[in-house]
Amino acid sequence: MRIIVAGLVAGLALISASGFAENSEDTLPDFKQLESALTWKQGNILLGHDLATLKVSSSFRYLAPEDAKTVLVKIWGNPPQQAEGTLGMIFPAELNPSDAGSWGVVISYLKDGYVKDDDAARINYDELLQHIQEATKDANPERIKQGYDPIQIIGWAAPPHYEKISHKLYWATELQFGEPSNHTLNYSIRALGRSGVLVLNAVSEMSQLKAIEQRMPEVISMVEFNSGNRYTDFNSGTDKVATYGIAALILGGAAAKAGLFKAIVPLLIAAKKFVVIGILAVVAFTRRLFRRKKDSAVPGSPAAPGSSESV
């Protein structure tokens, strides 16, 4: 069974690859054929319209948006609309998308304006975790009613940390869906810029936490906004300011913009093993997604994760 991933803060629902070992043998050649057509890139990658530069070392590989869409939709089995708007993906150089245990980082951009970081030092992340856990528990009856597994937020796999100098926020969450033997690791990175936030989401099993933690500093250091788009380029006289701060980036920007913090819940469609999650959104939006037919979550159906190059 393929593994369903929902990264909804960035507007994505993504299926990961760690369940490929369970796929029937006759499906694997199709994945390998698709992989052979992918164009992998390293070096300096220009993201967006001179928005930012991704410096990809020899230990990682980058896929441009169209190839990332091939992975997300055709190899990982996500609905096409859920792969729109990505700025590409990063993979460890030694892994292919269809490998068992494969993981990748999906890049996207939230153009919500300049996010003030003056609340970062005052946030009580233990209390924030409790709110997320309570919202998740409150949402479970609706999930069960719609035929999905309940979700439990176990805790921070790595507590949120904001780097004031680089204006980057990162954290990791441990999750459980139903009663699986393996827990989910959702690793999140947010890089603040002049007009919005670069979003990087990675997913794997909790057993890979140490390995991923060792490699995340390099991933975090890869992304830099270009001159004119940097956090320090903000012009208070002309630039838009986001309606939320650092805490809301963890809870989910969509709900923050709506001013409905009490309505924030996890939006997830669980699978047999694990899911990438973003903590988000407004109840009405949640209920619309929950109305999707359960059969859309069946594997194979749409539902449920140096030169300079420009993308």
Question: What can you tell me about this protein's structure?
Answer:
With 311 residues, the protein is an alpha+beta fold. It has one domain. The protein has 7 helices and 16 strands. Strand 1 and strand 2 form a beta hairpin.
Keywords:
about 300 residues; alpha+beta; 8-stranded antiparallel sheet; 4-stranded mixed sheet; 7 helices; 16 strands; about 30% strand; globular; disordered C terminus
List the uncertain runs. Answer: 1-15, 18-26, 253-310
Biggest β-sheet strands, sense, barrel: 8 strands, antiparallel
How much helicity do the residues have?
Answer: 10-25%
Mean pLDDT: 74
The global form is: globular
User: How many structural units, i.e. domains?
Assistant: 1
Return the string of H and E elements. EEHEEEEHEEHEEEEHEHHEEHE
Tally of strands: 16
Number of helical runs?
A: 7
The amount of beta strand, in percent, is 25-35%
Order of strands, main sheet, comes to: 3-6-7-8-12-11-10-9
Rounded radius of gyration (Å): 18 Å
**Class from helix and strand fractions:** alpha+beta
User: How far from one another are the termini?
Assistant: 32 Å
In short:
The protein has about 300 residues and is of the alpha+beta class.
SSE layout and pairing:
Blueprint: E1 3-7, E2 12-16, H1 28-36, E3 40-41, E4 43-47, E5 52-56, E6 60-63, H2 65-75, E7 88-92, E8 105-110, H3 125-145, E9 151-163, E10 168-177, E11 184-192, E12 197-205, H4 209-222, E13 223-225, H5 246-251, H6 253-258, E14 265-266, E15 279-280, H7 283-290, E16 307-310
Parallel strand pairs: 4-16
Antiparallel strand pairs: 1-2, 3-6, 4-5, 5-13, 6-7, 7-8, 8-12, 9-10, 10-11, 11-12, 14-15
